[in-house]
Specification:
The chain is an alpha+beta fold. The protein has a domain of 74 residues: NE0471 N-terminal domain-like. Helix content is 38%, strand content 21%. It contains five helices and six strands, in the order αβββαβββααα. Strands 1-2-3 form a three-stranded antiparallel sheet. The chain has a three-stranded antiparallel sheet with strand order 4-5-6. Strand 2 and strand 3 form a beta hairpin. The chain is elongated. The chain starts with a helix and ends in an 11-residue tail after the last helix.
Length: 135
Amino acid sequence: MADLADAEIDAALALGEKQANTEPRARSARYDRASGRIEVELTSGAAFAFPARLGQGLEIATEEELAQVLVSPGGYGLHWKALDVDLSIPGLAAGVFGTKAHMARIAGQARSAAKSAAARANGAKGGRPRKSGMA
């Protein structure tokens, strides 16, 4: 029985080493007040930044709160203790700033020439049709 537990531990350690070499892990993170971005340096030497206000739970945080960013143990995520917010490094690196619902809200806030033109055209037709009174 002890041999099985040792084998499982060895397998878990080997998997952890493999993931450390293939998945993005944070070495450090900081909030840059001038740009309003969270800047992340990865263990690979690469770096990326994202607008802090895109992160779920960071939308209305103060600059002082944003500056309190910590790298989670193992470099898997970023943590803001006072805000009780955690964001994953693999998710952030892929452009995912929160849950599906949060991402849908962000997408709905996007502005583009096409979206503006469609809204104007819809308005010229009298706007959104009223819901029928079916009960």
